[in-house]
């Protein structure tokens, strides 16, 4: 399944599930876990069918009878055995009148609703895995039978049998991200935007050993690490050991399901014993090869004595007030992350932007931290990267095994003005922007081969577009132009030509075919924009670093020595070092941006109309 088809499948599944939520009168919080539970069950069923088919191919026989498949056979294949009553097709094909089927649950009690049957299926699945016990949702009796049946049919989409576990994991993450927008609250944030997670993983480059996330939420750090390790040709479950702590049990359940859908295993502790401020739940101080986290920022009223007794404070306590409380927990987290690392460990984490130059005891801790020589890289992130907060943040990176030539140095990157707009409230880094930022880190580390491989990837990708296109003009631009800057210029000019053709074509279409014509042109222009964006990012990188020589770029990046950091009062704010780039054309095409705004306005109007219909329907049901 290609990327375009997958995106459509994700969107279609979400739209169907979300429409059902609107009819259910359940809040997003009530709806999230059961829906993700069904996605998990659908994944487990797809994996079960695949492994079952493999096992039956070469199944031995005795006395002319093929030996029956047992649960242990599935364990050896890293799959869950599913009893008949927990298999997705069994649930989908149940009669509308459940009571008439005279079914019984694992405890021998009669089942009278579809919700009870699905709850029973979840219990049966949990019985197959010690790590899943108490994790899967069992609140399906909150759903009316007809709604639950429709959800089961939605996820019984045959297309899901054609995609692998990796893609099911992506669909699970897509649903997580959509739910995150609706559910997130100050004490229940469970989702770190994927581009931030990927940046952390890409810089740390995990390959083997122990990984701890002491604020693991829904497990994005584990999942992305698994993807990174697998992409490098290794098996993540064999080379990595995952440990997580998560105070909110609901989030820990999401994490364990997320890991299971991605074929990962790990140990995640939750509840009071997993409050990382006061507990090293896995006894991992000094034991971790990697630490990754997006902890809650600016937490106050943390009990100083409890923190002191729990240890993990190599640089001392932050400031303590008269009530024996720490007024801001940011430097507790920073100290903890450092303390967990072994002698070669690396850490990467998200932190409030204010922490890079906070004063008082924070500054004293920061000075001691800089003195270790283990601060590796600092990346400023702009506004609107989170669903719940619009404020900027900073990515911190520690490395206890830096090369000698950079032991005394820190790389500062100010990426606040480098991002892709998703919508009016959300920004992200595209895949190519992630690679470009990573390329700066490679050059800082002297890893020229990785940088040159990226340049080659750009060339290969643009040529592949030339191979695939039926547009002779586009092919000529992609093949005949050797300089990337000139290629970008020609692509921009050609886009204006296509925009004009699109408008003329839509205007000339009769009323019956106008909508279809518009959709066809929208698709073509979107595909063209994808090509143009790749070319733009290639130009962005090559214009700054050419064939691969690092240099400080005003307003973007600078390598500073510890002496320079001391001169700036031990601030770790990238903007204090990289300076401000000269004001120049922002590169935004006014007509293009107005078109995007118009499209967004139409989308908001559609959402408003849908909401008004829902409100009207609910008011009628209430007799108002």
UniProtKB/TrEMBL annotation:
Residues 9-153 form the N6 adenine-specific DNA methyltransferase N-terminal domain. Pfam families: HsdM_N, N6_Mtase. The keyword Methyltransferase applies. GO terms for biological process: DNA restriction-modification system; methylation. It catalyses: a 2'-deoxyadenosine in DNA + S-adenosyl-L-methionine = an N(6)-methyl-2'-deoxyadenosine in DNA + S-adenosyl-L-homocysteine + H(+). The keyword tRNA processing does not apply. Keywords: Methyltransferase, Restriction system, S-adenosyl-L-methionine, Transferase. Its EC number is 2.1.1.72. Residues 165-439 form the DNA methylase adenine-specific domain. InterPro entries: D12N6_MeTrfase_N, DNA_methylase_A-5, SAM-dependent_MTases_sf, T1MK-like_N_sf, Type-I_RE_MTase_Subunit. Gene3D superfamilies: 1.20.1260.30, Vaccinia Virus protein VP39 (3.40.50.150). GO terms for molecular function: DNA binding; N-methyltransferase activity; site-specific DNA-methyltransferase (adenine-specific) activity. It comes from the Bacteria. Belongs to the N(4)/N(6)-methyltransferase family. PANTHER family: TYPE I RESTRICTION ENZYME HINDI METHYLASE SUBUNIT, TYPE I RESTRICTION ENZYME HINDVIIP M PROTEIN-RELATED. This is site-specific DNA-methyltransferase (adenine-specific).
């Amino acid at each position: 399944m290609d990327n375009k088809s997958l995106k459509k499948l994700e969107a279609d599944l979400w739209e169907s599930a979300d429409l059902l939520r609107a009819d259910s009168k359940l809040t997003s919080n009530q709806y999230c876990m059961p829906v993700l539970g069904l996605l998990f069950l659908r994944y487990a069923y797809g994996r079960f069918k695949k492994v079952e088919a493999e096992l039956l191919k070469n199944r031995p026989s005795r006395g002319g009878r093929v030996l029956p498949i047992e649960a242990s056979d599935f364990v050896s294949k890293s799959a869950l055995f599913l009893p008949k009553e927990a298999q997705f097709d069994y649930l989908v094909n149940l009669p509308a009148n459940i009571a008439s089927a005279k079914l019984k649950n694992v405890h021998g009690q009669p089942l009278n609703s579809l919700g009870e049957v699905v709850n029973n299926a979840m219990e049966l699945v949990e019985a197959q895995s010690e790590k899943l016990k108490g994790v899967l949702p069992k609140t399906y009796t909150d759903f009316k039978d007809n709604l639950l049946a429709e959800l089961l049919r939605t996820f019984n989409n045959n297309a899901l049998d054609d995609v692998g576990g990796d893609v099911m994991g992506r669909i699970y993450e897509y649903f997580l991200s959509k739910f995150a927008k609706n559910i997130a609250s100050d004490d229940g944030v469970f989702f770190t935007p994927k581009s931030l997670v990927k940046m952390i993983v890409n810089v740390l480059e995990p390959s083997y050993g122990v990984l701890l996330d002491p604020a693991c939420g829904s497990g994005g750090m584990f999942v992305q690490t698994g993807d990174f390790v697998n992409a490098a040709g290794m098996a993540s479950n064999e080379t990595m050991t995952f440990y997580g702590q998560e105070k909110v049990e609901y989030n820990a359940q999401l994490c364990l399901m997320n890991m299971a859908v991605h074929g990962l295993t790990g140990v995640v502790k939750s509840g009071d014993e997993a409050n990382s401020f006061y507990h090293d739940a896995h006894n991992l101080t000094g034991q971790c090869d990697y630490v990754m986290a997006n902890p809650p920022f600016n937490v106050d009223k943390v009990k100083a004595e409890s923190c002191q007794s729990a240890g993990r404070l190599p640089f001392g306590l932050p400031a303590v007030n008269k009530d024996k409380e720490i007024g801001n927990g940011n430097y507790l987290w920073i100290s903890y992350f450092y303390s967990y690392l072994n002698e070669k460990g690396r850490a990467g984490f998200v932190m409030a932007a204010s922490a890079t130059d906070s004063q008082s005891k924070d500054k004293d801790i920061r000075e001691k931290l800089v003195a270790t020589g283990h601060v590796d890289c600092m990346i400023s992130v702009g506004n609107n990267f989170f669903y719940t907060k619009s404020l900027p943040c900073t990515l911190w990176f520690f490395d206890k095994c830096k090369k000698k030539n950079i032991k005394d140095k820190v790389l500062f990157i100010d990426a606040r003005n480098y991002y892709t707009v998703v919508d009016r409230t959300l920004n992200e880094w595209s895949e190519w922007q992630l690679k470009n930022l990573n390329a700066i880190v490679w050059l800082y580390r002297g890893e020229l081969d990785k940088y040159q491989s990226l340049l080659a990837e750009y060339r290969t990708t643009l040529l592949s577009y030339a191979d695939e296109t039926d547009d002779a003009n586009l092919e000529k631009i992609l093949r005949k132009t050797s300089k990337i800057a000139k290629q970008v210029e020609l692509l921009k000019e050609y886009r204006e030509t296509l925009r004009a053709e699109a408008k003329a074509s839509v205007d000339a279409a009769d009323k019956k075919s106008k909508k279809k014509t518009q959709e066809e042109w929208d698709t073509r222009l979107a595909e063209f924009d994808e090509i143009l964006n790749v070319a733009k990012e290639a130009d962005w990188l090559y214009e700054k670093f050419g064939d691969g020589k690092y240099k400080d770029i005003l307003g973007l990046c600078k390598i500073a020595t510890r002496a320079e950091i001391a001169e700036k009062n031990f601030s770790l704010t990238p903007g204090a070092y990289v300076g401000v780039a000269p004001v120049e054309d922002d590169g935004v095409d006014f007509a293009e941006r107005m078109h995007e705004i118009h499209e967004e306005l139409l989308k908001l109007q559609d959402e408003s109309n849908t909401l008004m219909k829902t409100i009207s329907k609910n008011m009628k049901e209430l007799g108002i």
